[in-house]
Amino acid sequence: MEGAVMGKARMEAFSDGVIAVIITVMVLELKVPHSEDIASLSPLLPVFLTYVLSFIYVGIYWNNHHHMLHTVHKVSGSLLWANLHLLFWLSLIPFTTGWMGENHFAAMPTALYGAVLLMAAIAYWILQQLIIAAQGPDSLLRKAVGGDWKGKLSPFVYVIAIAAAFKAQWISQLLYLAVALIWLVPDKRIENALNSKEGAR
């Protein structure tokens, strides 16, 4: 119905389901070795390491997405599409994870992995900005993210990592890991903003 308020429950549930499937698809890339000795695990090490890195990234997106949606009370069509845009790029992580791991961090897979991370970061930023715009001048999310130095720094690092992939892949891997570690540190900005709002009531 025109003008009806759409709740966020379905969008949140759908997003959680997609992210759960992404993690499931990634773990299925870890093929069980046919030999029983410990040496048979050695060829799987690159795949396992890329899985761990990607699991951390997907977990970070799930965590931040969950907190961000706590500031949302209603959704619009543009928010739904922006959310789908983010999920599209996240859904490509299993493919790039597997390709990079199977090819032992070769240049092109490493660069494509970074490109997907870059596009996911941009998609998350777009979703965040649409939520802020919908909330108006007193946006709780705007107050929570502040200058958002992490969000501004990450795409810049990804671009450097993509370029470095064709010269020294280990630099790219270190940069991807560095961004993950930056975001892995618990971020209480949205929680604190929500608590402040509740305390003001």
Task: Provide key terms for this protein.
201 residues, globular, 74% helix, single chain, 0% strand, mainly alpha
**How would you sum up the major sheet?**
none
Overall mean pLDDT: 86
Which segments are poorly predicted (pLDDT under 50) over 5 or more consecutive residues? none
Residue share in helices? over 70%
Measured on Cα atoms, how large is the radius of gyration? 19 Å
Q: Strand fraction band? A: under 5%
Strand elements, count: 0
Separate helix tally: 9
Helix-strand category? mainly alpha
Q: CA-to-CA gap between the ends?
A: 32 Å
What is the molecular shape?
globular
Listing every helix as H and every strand as E from the N terminus to the C terminus, the arrangement reads HHHHHHHHH
What secondary-structure arrangement, pairings included, does this model have?
Blueprint: H1 9-28, H2 45-69, H3 77-91, H4 93-102, H5 107-135, H6 140-145, H7 149-164, H8 169-184, H9 189-200
Helix pairs in contact: 1-2, 1-3, 1-4, 2-4, 2-8, 3-5, 4-5, 5-7, 5-8, 7-8
Q: What can you see in these coordinates?
A:
The protein has nine helices and no strands. The longest helix is centred in the middle third of the chain and has 29 residues, at about 105-135. Helix content is about 75%, strand content about 0%. It has helices at about 10-30, 45-70, 75-90, 95-100, 105-135, 140-145, 150-165, 170-185, 190-200. It is globular. Helix 1 packs parallel to helix 4. The model has no long low-confidence stretch (mean pLDDT about 85).
